[in-house]
Amino acid sequence: MPYHYLERTVNNDVLLYLEKLRSDSLQEVVIITNAPESIAIYCERLFRVRVLRADIGKKYIVLNNFYIYKKLNIVTDNVTDIDVINVADSAILLGKHLRKRKDIKCPNVKYSV
Fold first, then answer.
1. What is the pTM of this model?
2. Distance between CA 41 and CA 31 in Å, rounded?
3. Mean pLDDT across the chain
């Protein structure tokens, strides 16, 4: 995937949410991705956050191996992230395909296209 593609396709809701989280000094922003390592490193630089890699369906395990948290807020466009969606306190779910899911248990969900 060309890197310039990432810069053009970043969702504005996600950028606003990222800035909101950054303004709260009690929160750390981390990206956990199953993207190739080169894209993960690029995102780390672009968004100025820590990026961790995880296999599909294993993001919750990676999160718990590296962090102790009181509140979990997530942003995802991937249905394979159901493991972290269902333990999150809030989530922004990107894409119409996630609206159809009946197994989402997160109490505070915002959908964005």
1. 0.73
2. 11
3. 81
